[in-house]
Every structure is written in structure tokens, then in C-alpha cells.
Amino acid sequence: MKKNKIPAGCDTFEDVLANKLKDPEFKKEWDALEPQFAMECALVELRMQCQETQKKLADKMATKQGYISRVESGAVSPTVNYIAKMADALNADAEIVFRPRGTKKVIRAILVKENKEKYQAL
After folding, report:
1. CATH of the domain at 88
2. Is-contact 85 91, C-beta < 8 A?
């Protein structure tokens, strides 16, 4: 089994990553995962901003804490419906924005939007 050796002078994750990104094959694979990383980070940031634990969020969503953990770690890829459900449980609006390259046009897909009628009764 080949061991990955940390290059001399590299002692932080950022140092190791910067060194690995010099390898074109590694960089290509890393870049391919960037959208997944961005989604995971956004979901974790939203949950933490709402001061929710994975367990409390799972209870709100009628799911298991372990599944929330797997979504946040990238072990599973959530569906668009699951992302919308998670955003709603965190009292957040969610949308996907498409910007055709070379244009200023924006196309939005609203996943979750505050329902004013729902809150007027409160």
C-alpha cells in the first residue's frame, strides 16, 4: 500500500492542499467536487447560524441525526427536495440561481419562500 507522504515544510491542511493542487490530475478532481463542497459548507453554516444541533434539526425534519451528518460531510448527496426541506426547517428561503455564461440574465428556481399567509395567523 502506497502511503501519502506530507511534503517537507507543509504542516497545515492549507499547505498540503496548495502543494497537491499543483498536480493537474488532483486539481481537476478537486475542482469537480467544488459545487458539492460549496453546498455542504452552506448547509453547515446555515445550521450553525441558526444555532441548531444536527439532532435538533433532524427532529424538526423527522429524520435521523446520522443522515444530517452524512449530508454535511458529503457522504450522501441530498436531493433538491431534501435541501428545500432542510432550509425550511432552518427558517430560511432557498433558491437555485442560473446565470447563462456570457449574459447578465438570471434564472431563478425558488425552492423555499416564506409563506406570508402561514405567518399572518401567528
Report:
1. 1.10.260.40
2. no
- State the Cα–Cα distance between residues 1 and 8, nearest whole angstrom: 21
- Report whether 104 contacts 98 (CB < 8 A): no
pTM: 0.70
The CA R_g of the chain, rounded to the nearest whole Å, is: 19
Give the domain extent around 46. 14-92
* Residues 43 and 77 sit within 8 Å (Cβ to Cβ): no
List, for residues 32-59, the tens digit of each pLDDT value: 988 888 889 899 999 999 999 999 999 9
For residue 28, being part of any structural domain is answered with yes
Q: Please tell me the total count of domains within the chain.
A: 1
Give the type of residue at 105.
K
